[in-house]
Design a protein that fits this description.
The chain has 482 residues and is α/β, with parallel strands linked by helices. The protein folds into two domains: 260 residues, Aspartate Aminotransferase, domain 2, CATH 3.40.640.10; 146 residues, Aspartate Aminotransferase, domain 1 (Alpha-Beta Complex), CATH 3.90.1150.10. The protein is built from 19 helices and 17 strands. It has a seven-stranded mixed beta sheet with strand order 4-10-9-8-7-5-6, sandwiched between helices. The protein has a four-stranded antiparallel beta sheet with strand order 11-12-15-14. Strands 1-13 form a two-stranded parallel ribbon. The longest helix is centred in the N-terminal third of the chain and has 25 residues. The structure holds D-serine. D-serine binds next to loops.
Length: 482
């Protein structure tokens, strides 16, 4: 780790930027400074968060933000987009090269947006030929409202099959609170009740019965890698398009931890991701696809996306360039080693983990053994300076609000430099907090599922020890705001 110095280019840049903000709205400058302080002090174990590099952060705060550029490279709805074209081309070039994809589309503002672009692209591709023949138009985007009304009636198959929410699937994979649950008739596959692992034969059986248009593979809380070769075989057998949402594990694919059958890019027709989780870029999304879908994907804006955030695309380009460096592979391997160490020590101390371990960046603790709900565990850990989030476990008796699980991830602390030894200590601290936490009495005389009891002294002691673990690993050591 470099020594903290006020004269690094990063310190000068962030210090001056905050002075400029401070001159107009000091409360915003204060909030930005406070966020850095919070991030420096907290033990961040949220599996979907990370720390982007200073170069990535700085690439976002500039004049690219001022430019409208609907459309895509070389085909814009506004004049004067040559610099945006440059930025978008470089980001797409890095993305395609990093992942070995035929085509990359770097405009989506988030993972939800990336998934919407993917859904639309598959629908456009799969309905295009018959629709165009009937309506005598060149492209699916030129269909009239009457054509669409007829198509909605006639489309035989707008079905999506994805992993169930309690098995670790994501809301955007066809579930009601998201538009995917309205666009598509949805069915889910779960995990084996004994092992907690995905049962590919069961997925195949459900796919044969349900015959989806899109088979979605991907998760936000499943602690294992997926075999995308098998998922593609299943998709092909039932005539589905395989879409992989790799938002959580994109960094592990980029860092060559997930290769062969476990790398989605050679197997899926379309792959979506966010750029800010294990990939360690700015907040945003991205779509990778095989050539046959490229034309449709590139129409994401204005079909389902607002104008591209050119400053965010610039930051994506910087982060993707970083991920193409050899040390990113070391980082990605370290994420998994850290998760494995955390899992081993938690299990050694008696914690029950979904699937009895991990082979990715996250660990899902079933906190039922500790006698608390996920919500109580999340709040108790927060009292002790450990930031995690509650999560359902398969067939969760406490539902999606209170839950019975705690999801713990290693990408952020690995960026900070922590290793397996520190993971062992963190596992110990988590175990202490969960062991000492109790359910608070409820008004009806029973026990609450939301409120918890944890002795303040124990919480304070753990918070101090968590601080000690972090002390050797300063966050953003080249940034000193004075
Ligand atoms: N919010 C992300 C996560 O925490 O997994 C997924 O959208």
């Amino acid at each position: 780790m470099a020594t903290t110095s006020p004269l690094t280019p990063e310190s000068v840049a962030f210090y001056n930027a905050l002075e400029a903000v401070n001159a107009i709205e000091p409360r915003i400058a204060d909030a930005i400074r406070a966020e850095l302080a919070d991030q420096r002090e907290s033990l961040k174990l949220i599996a979907s968060e990370n720390y982007a590099s200073p170069a990535t952060l700085l690439a976002m705060g500039n004049w690219l933000s001022d430019k409208y550029a609907e459309g895509t490279i070389g085909r814009r709805f506004y004049a004067g987009c040559h610099n945006v074209d440059t930025v978008e081309s470089i980001a797409a070039e890095h993305a395609a090269a990093l992942f070995g994809a035929d085509h990359a589309y770097v405009q989506p503002h988030s993972g939800i947006d990336a998934n919407l672009v993917a859904f639309w692209s598959v629908l456009a591709q799969r309905v295009e030929l018959p629709a165009l023949q009937q309506a005598e138009v060149r492209h699916v985007n030129d269909l009239s409202e009457e054509d669409w009304a007829r198509l909605r009636r006639e489309l035989g198959n707008q079905r999506m099959l994805g992993m169930s929410l309690d098995a670790g699937g994501h809301l955007t994979h066809g579930f009601r609170p998201n538009i995917s649950g309205k666009m598509f008739e949805q069915a889910s596959y779960g995990t084996d009740p004994e092992t907690g692992l995905l049962d590919y034969d069961a997925v195949r059986e459900t796919a044969r019965e349900f015959r989806p248009l899109i088979l979605v593979a991907g998760y936000s809380a499943y602690p294992r890698k997926l075999n995308f070769r098998i998922m593609r075989e299943i998709a092909d057998e039932v005539g589905a398009t395989l879409m992989v949402d790799m938002a959580h594990f994109a960094g592990l694919v980029a860092g060559k931890v997930f290769t062969g059958d476990f790398d989605p890019v050679p197997h899926a027709q379309i792959v979506t991701t966010t750029t800010h989780k294990s990939l360690r870029g700015p907040r945003g999304g991205m779509v990778l696809c095989q050539q046959e879908l490229a034309e449709h994907v590139d129409r994401g804006c204005p079909m389902v996306l607002g104008g591209p955030l050119s400053h965010a695309m610039a930051a994506k380009a910087v982060a993707l360039a970083e991920a193409r460096q050899p040390d990113f592979q070391t980082y990605a391997q370290r994420i998994v080693e850290n998760a494995e160490s955390l899992a081993e020590e938690l299990m050694r101390r008696g914690a029950k983990l979904v699937t009895d371990g991990t082979d990715n960046h996250l660990v899902l603790i079933d906190v039922t053994n500790y006698g608390v709900t996920g919500r109580q565990a999340e709040n108790a850990l927060l009292d002790a300076g450990i930031v995690t989030n509650r999560n359902s476990v398969p067939r969760d008796p406490n539902g999606a609000w209170f839950t019975s699980g705690i999801r713990v991830g290693t990408p952020a602390l690995t960026t900070r430099g922590l290793g397996p030894a520190e993971m062992g200590e963190i596992a110990r601290l988590i175990d202490v907090v969960l062991t000492e936490t109790q359910r608070a009495p409820a008004r009806d005389g029973g026990l609450s599922r939301g409120k918890h009891l944890l002795d303040e002294k124990i919480a304070g002691d753990v918070a101090r020890q968590a601080g000690d673990v972090l002390a050797g690993y300063p966050l953003y050591p080249t940034v000193n705001l004075g």
